[in-house]
C-alpha cells in the first residue's frame, strides 16, 4: 500500500484552492461541506458555483499575482488549474513548506489524493486507486452506493449520540458488540423506509430500552460447525455471517488459514488437531463466546463435529451445522 489512508478534520481550518473552473468548483464544494475555510486564487472565475460562493461570502478570494507566502496560512493546497508549469512550481513551493498538496489529475505532483466517497454521514467510506485509476475508484464507489443502506447514516449518528447510555445498558464489550451487530443486521431498515431518520431513532430507542433484557438471554455461548471452503469466495452468506460474528475460531490441523480470510480480524484464532478441537471449542462456548469450528470435512473432522454437537447438547449450548458452500452448480 503506497498511500497512508486518513480522514482530515478541516473544520475551521484554512485550505487554499487555485483555479476557478468546474474542477475547482467540485473541490470547493467538498471542502465547504467538511467545514473548511476556503481561500481561492483564480485568474478568472469560470464556474457559476464558484461565483455564487464568492458572492455569498462562503469563500475568500486572494487577488493579484500568486504569492507563495499564502501557503504559510493554510493546512492543505488544491491545484485545479490547467497550467502544468504553474502546478509543478506550486507543488515545489508547497513541499518546501511541508504543506500537503493535491494537483488534480497529476498523482506524481500530489502529496495527497482525494478519494471517491460513499457518504452515509457520519459514516464515510473513501476509495482510492492511488491516483492511477480514478475511473475504477468511481466504479467501486457506485457499487458500494447500492450495497449500503441509507439507514446506516442515521444509525451511526445514533450510536454516537447514545454512546454512554449503550455502555450503561451493556457494560460487557462482547454483548455490546453482538447488540450492535443485531441492529446492523437489518432490524431498522424498515423503520427508515417507513419514516426516515426520525422513525429510525424511535426504533433504536425501543431496542435500547430492551437491551438489558436481551443481554440476559444472549449471554450464553454458541457453536457453529463449518466445513472449510476451497476458496474464500465460495462461502455461503450464512457462513460469512458466522465467521464475521465469531469470538473464537477453532481450526482443525488440515485447514489453511487462508480458508478463513473473510473472518473477523479480532477473533481469537486457534489451530489444533481434530482430537482436541471439540474440547477446546466447548470450553470457549461455556465461557460465553460464539465459536466456529472450521474443519476439513475429513472423517476425523466429522467425528469431532459429532462429539462437539453431543457435548453442546448436554451442556445446554446452542450448536448448529452451517452450510459452507451452496449446493448445486455455481
From TrEMBL:
Keywords: NAD, Oxidoreductase, Porphyrin biosynthesis. It catalyses: precorrin-2 + NAD(+) = sirohydrochlorin + NADH + 2 H(+). Residues 232-327 form the Tetrapyrrole methylase domain. Residues 120-145 form the Siroheme synthase central domain. One of its GO terms (biological process) is siroheme biosynthetic process. Residues 151-208 form the Sirohaem synthase dimerisation domain. It comes from the Bacteria. InterPro entries: 4pyrrol_Mease (IPR000878), 4pyrrol_Methylase_sf (IPR035996), 4pyrrole_Mease_sub1 (IPR014777), Met8-like (IPR028161), NAD(P)-bd_dom_sf (IPR036291), Sirohaem_synt_dimer_dom_sf (IPR037115), Sirohaem_synthase_central (IPR028281), Sirohaem_synthase_dimer_dom (IPR019478). Its EC number is 1.3.1.76. The keyword Heme does not apply. The keyword Endoplasmic reticulum does not apply. Pfam families: CysG_dimeriser (PF10414), NAD_binding_7 (PF13241), Sirohm_synth_M (PF14824), TP_methylase (PF00590). GO terms for molecular function: ferrochelatase activity; methyltransferase activity; precorrin-2 dehydrogenase activity. Pathway: Porphyrin-containing compound metabolism; siroheme biosynthesis; sirohydrochlorin from precorrin-2: step 1/1. NCBIfam families: cysG_Nterm. PANTHER family: SIROHEME BIOSYNTHESIS PROTEIN MET8. This is precorrin-2 dehydrogenase. It comes from Pseudoxanthomonas broegbernensis.
